Amino acid sequence: MALFGVPVGPHGSPKTAVARRILFCHVDEEASRTNNPRRTPKTCRGLQGHVFNTDISVIDTPEGFFGVNDSISTQHAKNIAAQVQFLSAPGPHAFLLEIQIYTPRKIVRNTVDQLCRHFGDNVLKHIVVLFTSGSSLQVSLSSVTEYINKNRDIQQLVHNCGNRYLLFDDTCDVGSLSNHKQVKQLMAMVNQMISSNGGEYIKLCA
Q1: How far is residue 88's CA from residue 94's CA, in Å, rounded to a whole number?
Q2: N or C: which end of the chain has fewer CB within 10 A?
Q3: For 71-112, how does the pLDDT look when each residue is reduced to its tens digit (9 = 90+)?
Q4: What phi-psi label fits residue 11: left (phi over 0), alpha (psi between -120 and 50 degrees) or beta?
Q5: Sign, Cα dihedral of 55, 12, 123, 193
Q6: Which of 143, 142, 109 is CA-nearest to residue 124?
Q7: Does the global pTM surpass 0.90?
Q8: CB within 8 A of 31, min separation 6: which ones?
Q9: What is the 3-state secondary structure (H, E, C) of 86-111?
Q10: Domain spanning 3-196 has what CATH number?
């Protein structure tokens, strides 16, 4: 079974960097061009790879989508959500919610609200929270835990997402042992989540 994942996050989140590390840069460019030959900042693209004996498609979303960006109209946001659904048909298995440590809680709430608006409240059981920029900010797992415990909104979000969260270094070398380890850990968490969800896909709200 092919897995479909969608990195999302507030404006400035390293979504493409995360996608490249998940796929170890083993991106099927031909398939990517076939899915969307003329990608612009207003459209999505599907990136394919084969990781740990599993076919994976990662949907790369435009900057500002699922985040605070006044230039993204309601109709355009709906169009992007529809592209996500189309590129991962019949729908994605997981949203990878990227949060950089010390991101204002209001911005994180807005991102989650947009996801729920387009895909329903049920989307929370399909989310893995990734705390990114671990290396550049010298963030450790203990500091992430402290950040969660000190922020009630973040604590509630992580709880609502089944306590699924990882510290993910989006700056490490894609071929490094550390990246291999974190991707393997992420894959295990996503597979366990999919199993708990009975293999169901995320569906766009009517």
Answers
A1: 10
A2: C
A3: 556 777 788 888 888 988 888 999 999 888 777 778 888 888
A4: beta
A5: positive
A6: 109
A7: no
A8: 46, 48
A9: HHCCCCCCEEEEEEECCCCHHHHHHH
A10: 3.40.50.300
